[in-house]
Design brief:
Order of helices and strands: HHHHH
Number of helices: 5
Number of strands: 0
Helix content: over 70%
Oligomer: single chain
Distance between the termini: 32 Å
Radius of gyration: 18 Å
Length: about 120
């Protein structure tokens, strides 16, 4: 990430009236992201997407009100795309673990579709 991008983001936060300590936390966070390799960043994105997918599947009482199978499908599809991008760049055992997570998400999605949920998507990932 370029310094100009960080400064622009921080300037936007400042104009939104965020407290000084929050601006500094944002600046540090952006600097940390800038130090990650692209592959590491993609893995973080996959973790985020798997959490979003699980949340949108509404599998627990805490997430049932956020259930949205269209959004879950989108998150699962994006996870799958990132996984195929990472193959060959990460250790085989790590890819195997991500494939297992993808399979679990896909099975949960199919289960939600089979339950006849009215918020279901038209096609399976």
């Amino acid at each position: 990430m370029r310094d100009e991008d960080v400064n622009e983001s921080v300037d936007q936060v400042e104009s939104d009236g965020i407290a000084e300590d929050e601006r500094e936390a944002m600046r540090r966070f952006q600097e940390e992201i800038g130090r990650l390799s692209v592959a590491d960043h993609l893995v973080l994105m996959m973790h985020s997407l798997s959490g979003l997918a699980a949340d949108r599947l509404g599998l627990s009482p805490d997430t049932v009100e956020r259930k949205d199978l269209e959004q879950a499908r989108l998150a699962i599809d994006a996870f799958k795309a990132l996984l195929s991008t990472l193959e060959g760049t990460r250790p085989a055992e790590e890819i195997k673990a991500h494939r297992a997570a993808l399979s679990q998400l896909q099975m949960a999605y199919v289960g939600a579709l089979a339950a006849g949920d009215p918020t279901s998507a038209a096609e399976t990932p």
